[in-house]
Specification:
This protein is an all-alpha fold. 77% of the residues lie in helices and 0% in strands. It has one domain: Four Helix Bundle (Hemerythrin (Met), subunit A) (Up-down Bundle), CATH 1.20.120. The protein starts with a helix and ends with a helix.
C-alpha cells in the first residue's frame, strides 16, 4: 500500500471514528434525558456512567490511531495520560495538534472516571459524580467537532498536495 493509500485509509477511519463518537454522544444525551426523569434510579445512573465510559473509549481510539500512524509508539506505563498530552502538541514536520489545550484536563477527567468505572467492584457510583463527568463529556463533544474538522482538513490538504505533485 502506498503512502497516499495509507493516508486515504486513515482519513476514512477518522470519519468512521468520528461518526462513532457522534453516535455515542447522541446515545449519551438520550440517556441523560431519560435518567433525569428517573431520579434516584441506580440503573439509570449506571447507564449514563457506562455511556460516558464508552464515549471516552471512542476518543481514546481516535487518538491511538493518530499516535500509531504518525508517531509509532506509546511505551510509558502511563500511556493513557501521555496519549492525551500528545494530542495537544503539534509535532513539526509530522502532524498538527489534534486537540486544544483546553480539552486536556476535561479529557483526563473522563479518563480517570473511565478507570474508576472499569475497576469498580465493591463501590457504588455517586450520582453527583456521574452528573459531573456527564456534563464534562457533553462539553468535550461540542469542542471536539472543531478539532476533528481541523485535523481531517489537514489530512485533506496533504492528499490534495500529493495529487497536485503526482
Amino acid at each position: 500500500m502506498s503512502d497516499s493509500e495509507r493516508l486515504r485509509l486513515l482519513r476514512a477511519q477518522f470519519d468512521d471514528d468520528y461518526l462513532f463518537i457522534r453516535e455515542s454522544a447522541r446515545r449519551h444525551v438520550d440517556m441523560v434525558s431519560r435518567a433525569a426523569h428517573a431520579r434516584d434510579d441506580e440503573m439509570a445512573t449506571t447507564a449514563v456512567a457506562y455511556l460516558v465510559h464508552n464515549l471516552y473509549t471512542a476518543f481514546q481510539g481516535y487518538f491511538l490511531r493518530i499516535a500509531k500512524h504518525f508517531e509509532n509508539s506509546l511505551k510509558d506505563s502511563a500511556w493513557h495520560r501521555e496519549l492525551i498530552d500528545r494530542m495537544k502538541i503539534a509535532i513539526p514536520g509530522i502532524r498538527p495538534a489534534v486537540i486544544t489545550p483546553d480539552l486536556v484536563e476535561p479529557l483526563d477527567e473522563l479518563r480517570r472516571f473511565r478507570h474508576l468505572f472499569r475497576n469498580m467492584y465493591k463501590s457504588r457510583l455517586r450520582e453527583d459524580r456521574v452528573t459531573e463527568v456527564s456534563e464534562i463529556a457533553a462539553t468535550i463533544v461540542k469542542e471536539f467537532d472543531t478539532c476533528h474538522e481541523a485535523f481531517v482538513g489537514w489530512i485533506d490538504a496533504l492528499l490534495a498536495a500529493e495529487e497536485a505533485e503526482g
